[in-house]
Amino acid sequence: MELDYDILNGTDEFPYPNSIIGTDFKNFSSDFNEIDEFLYINHRFNSLDSLIKDLNHLSTSLNETLLNLVNDEYNDFINLGKSINSGNELIELLLQDLQNFKFDLIEYYKKFEKIDQELEVVLKNRQVLMNLKTVSKLNLIIHDQMMEFDNLINELSGVDIKSFKKLTSLYISMNNIVKFLTNFTKDQEEIGDCLFHENYITNKIGSIRLEFKSYLDQLIKKELSKKDKTDRDSNLMLELLKVYELIGKQEDVLGILRK
C-alpha cells in the first residue's frame, strides 16, 4: 500500500501528538504492515520515548484489567462453588426429609393394613350376626305359623273353603321357610347348629306334613264317597286337586281315585 507522507496530510492544522489507547488495536489483524500504517497515520509526530511510554502504560493497564478480570471470575467461581455446596447441603436435607417421609408412609401403611384387617373381621362378624338374626327371625315366624296351623286344623269341624285356603297358605309358607333355612345354613359354618331348629322345627314340620296330607286325603275321600255326584262340592274338589299338585302328591290322588 502506498502511503501519503505529506506532513500535514493536505491540511493546515498543526499536528498535535496523540497518545496510544487500547481501542486503537481492536481492528488489527495479523498483518504487520497495518501497524506501520497505523503508527504513521496517527502517531508519526510522537517521539519514540513517548510511544514507548504510552505502550508501557497501555500494557500495564491491560495487565491490571486482565488481573481484575481473573480475580472477578475467580470470585464468581468461588461463589459458584459455595452455592453448589449450599445446594448439595440442601439436597442432602431434602433427601433426609424424603427418607423420613418414606419411613412415615411405611408406618402409616402398616397401620392402615392392620385397621383394614380389623375392619374385615368386624364386617365378617357383623355379617354372621345378621345371618343369625335372619335365622332367628325365620324360626320365630315358622314357630308362630305352626301354632296357628295347629289351632286352625283343630278348629275345622266342617268344610270351609276360606279356612282351607288359609291352612294351605300356612303349610306352603312353612315348607318354603324350612327349605330356605336348610339351604341358607348349609354353607354357613360360622352360624353353627340351631338346637331349636334341629330339635323342634325339623320334627314339627315333618309331623305337620303328615297331618296335612292326612287331612287332604280325608277331605277328598269324603267328597268321593258321595254317591250322587251333584252332592259333591266341585269348588272344594278343584281346590284339593290344586293343592295335591302344589305339594307334589298327584300320584296319591290318582291312587285314591282308582279305589
TrEMBL record:
UniProt subcellular location: Golgi apparatus membrane
Keywords tagged on the record: Golgi apparatus, Membrane, Protein transport, Transport
Principal location: Golgi
GO biological process: protein transport
Membrane topology, record value: Peripheral membrane protein
Domain Conserved oligomeric Golgi complex subunit 2 N-terminal: 31-92
Domain of life: Eukaryota
GO cellular component, as recorded: Golgi membrane
Signal peptide range in chain numbering: none
Annotated protein name in UniProt: Conserved oligomeric Golgi complex subunit 2
